[in-house]
């Protein structure tokens, strides 16, 4: 074993050459690390933590995030984000950041930490703080915050509020159930990617092995400060709307706008953004943070959530409704008639706004957007629709790539409600998306071009929408002998290959000539897309068609093509296709 920093009570002790020691520590790899699984035979310490027995760190990776179970009590879901695991992950991020920034010993790096409303938030925030402080970095806690605010903290330049942060960590698991939690990481370059997360987890595994060897106990963090950064973030949103309306102090005066935060972190939007702009917010609901999410899932894609905000708009005769997910990086709206502005409609609306500002620009979306949206963007708005892959980071990175090769793009947006604009540093910010809508309302009234949400609804006039739109999930049984030793990903790719080949010989169906994910096919007036899930042993099947009958015809074509794959559970498709 190489020399490790001395260990004291669950913390790594640091000397003047701490960054060098951390790099040595995290580059250290032994048999444990190579297997990514760690076993504990160490004697018990003052803090009994049974989950130290075994941890597979790489299983905590969820694309460009880290997610796990943080609260016990749900059958079949043992806690994976324990305090020592969390502390090791935070120390792994600190080590990664030290390598990334390569600062000299004269300056200490600074990391900001925020969290959503989950019931495990405080416990994990404390563990993250210990992990960051153990590396000799300064910790700045924001408490309840939004994911976009955490990224912004790496850009704000104001030493009075300890900004900019060199790195930021948001403790959240988006819309997942109350027992889950996780982490998102940022620097001034944006959110970390998949390779960065893998690197951090491997570093965390090495640190965790040191916990196992030396024992673990909780010790209070030093160098921790607290800042109300959300006051700065919300002030910037207010300024953006005022500027769009010609510097009017209360450009939304008289507008009645209700907010549904789903008991997540987005409750600030009513009192801290809308009311200073003059809006009436009575009837807003579920603004209080409650990590048990007692009213509905904070998710703009969830039918119950959208029904709740729609009903609030109608009951209060409001001009507009706004809904956020748990950590406010996704959003949607509802107009005064109760018409939902989410998924394809929200993309169409944002495309209309952006293409007014940047004529001809490319709009990057995920793979499940409709053919009607393509027609709307390209034929009505005069833009270009670049349909890419699922995953908000994939969509954002593709827009950045297009700009780098000379193809102008100003909007990257998913049907899930993740939307990022070039003008906002390519950050997927649900609050900023809603500010763009508010800008439109305010500027239209200031210029005498209209009032109320009809201004927004008119922008999506002409968007062709299917009568039927469904998503069916075809699960792969990983224990089925038909896999023949293959991974679920290899098996899923074989299904897609076979489907693509079978479609090629059918004159009634047309395979998409430009497609970046799965198999997309047009026919019977509609289309379907079968793709492999980013993380799970599932093949989601999206179907859109002008009638249920046509949707069933498309579904039956898929069913016939994949029937020989016995490990694929097609029961959801079979049920949908029943007469």
TrEMBL record:
Keywords: Carbohydrate metabolism, Glucose metabolism, Isomerase, Magnesium, Metal-binding, Phosphoprotein. It is an enzyme of class 5 (isomerase). GO terms for molecular function: metal ion binding; phosphoglucomutase activity; phosphomannomutase activity. Residues 63-205, 236-338, 343-444 form the Alpha-D-phosphohexomutase alpha/beta/alpha domain. One of its GO terms (cellular component) is chloroplast stroma. One of its GO terms (biological process) is glucose metabolic process. CDD domains: PMM_PGM. Its cofactor is Mg(2+). It catalyses: alpha-D-glucose 1-phosphate = alpha-D-glucose 6-phosphate; alpha-D-glucose 1,6-bisphosphate + L-seryl-[protein] = O-phospho-L-seryl-[protein] + alpha-D-glucose 6-phosphate; O-phospho-L-seryl-[protein] + alpha-D-glucose 1-phosphate = alpha-D-glucose 1,6-bisphosphate + L-seryl-[protein]. Its EC number is 5.4.2.2. Belongs to the phosphohexose mutase family. This is phosphoglucomutase (alpha-D-glucose-1,6-bisphosphate-dependent).
